[in-house]
Design goal:
alpha+beta; globular; single chain
Length: about 325
């Protein structure tokens, strides 16, 4: 075999290892900081990740690849002692998401949770994150870099269009260095993007609110109301009975509901106006590129993962992947 062929084989074999390096260097957004998907009984690998990215970049010269990670809970069975049932454990597994786009995707995060009705859009740098260029050549042996053939040099050139989500939080957020409130931001954050299909032309109808009411006794009540299922003529008397309120507090409670709906409608209208202005500020070319982005979701190449458990869902902003591996 020629030296050229030997170099090509060496680089090719290294692609699997480079895929795993890229996956492990990519920040898993939204993971619990004290329960990393990389720890545990399985050694997760992503051998096909980098070849797939390079293939897409090679055939689409105008695209860049933006790589971020997520973690998903999955159930696993572990053998136990003879005569005892198998141990069932729910563990987080890593999944890598690759966004192919003709322009830079936003360096922003959305922070929300199922327990909160609020949503904050923040710059990545506020949580020490950024889209960081990924340079495969840093991980190659010096001899490989010197002996690289035309094909390997082309691959390394493609890698210059790969950007990974990088986070520099101290000690990975472990220990006493990160407050609990800040820790929750890391657990509830996800990469943010805004596309044309995500922005309505008119404000959505408000059907559910969380209202507050200060009783005559001075207590602060907080309650949810869904006008699709609740009726004030039935809901308020039940509320009065449940909390031992005065019957003539019906109208003040009703007024608090009206105020809550008015505030929510104003908030929805303000959000829509902000989104429409953000789309207009992008400009036609950038918006077209973002609307045409292609999303790849990659699971570990492991027999431990049930193929039926693989989903296309990425997050509330990026929606669903176009392809799952």
């Amino acid at each position: 075999m020629s030296k050229k062929g030997q170099a090509s084989q060496s680089i090719s074999v290294g692609a699997d290892e480079l895929s795993n390096v890229l996956a492990r260097e990519t920040w898993l957004c939204g993971q619990e900081l004290d329960c990393s998907a990389w720890t545990g009984p399985f050694d997760w690998t992503f051998s096909g990740l980098l070849p797939k990215i390079r293939e897409k970049l090679r055939t689409n010269l105008d695209l860049k690849a933006f790589v971020f990670g997520t973690s998903e809970p999955q159930q696993f069975s572990f053998p136990s002692k003879k005569g005892e049932p198998e141990e069932i454990r729910v563990l987080p597994i890593p999944a890598i998401v690759v966004v192919f786009c003709g322009v830079d995707v936003p360096d922003q995060l959305g922070i929300t949770s199922v327990q909160s009705s609020t949503e904050d859009i923040v710059q990545m740098r506020s949580l020490k994150m950024s889209w960081c260029p990924w340079n495969a050549s840093e991980h190659l042996e010096r001899s490989q870099r010197r002996a690289g053939d035309d094909a390997s040099c082309t691959d390394l050139a493609l890698d210059q269009r790969i950007f990974k989500l990088h986070c520099t939080i101290r000690h990975g957020g472990q220990g006493p260095f990160t407050s609990e409130s800040r820790r929750k931001k890391y657990e509830y954050c996800m990469p943010y993007v805004l596309r044309s299909k995500d922005v309505a032309s008119e404000p959505e109808e408000v059907t559910h609110v969380i209202a507050t009411y200060k009783t005559r006794a001075g207590a602060e009540l907080e309650f949810g109301f869904d006008k699709e299922v609740d009726r004030t003529q039935l809901f308020i008397p039940e509320l009065i009975e449940d909390y031992g309120l005065e019957k003539d507090e019906f109208d003040p409670i009703k007024d608090s509901l009206k105020a809550a709906f008015q505030a929510k409608r104003a908030e929805v209208a303000k959000t829509l106006d902000s989104q429409q202005k953000a789309l207009a500020a992008l400009g036609g070319h950038a918006l077209a590129c973002i609307d045409a982005m292609f999303i790849l979701k990659v699971y570990p190449d492991s027999e431990h993962i049930d193929p039926l458990m693989k989903t296309t869902f990425v997050n509330r902003y990026y929606g669903s992947a176009d392809e799952v591996m």
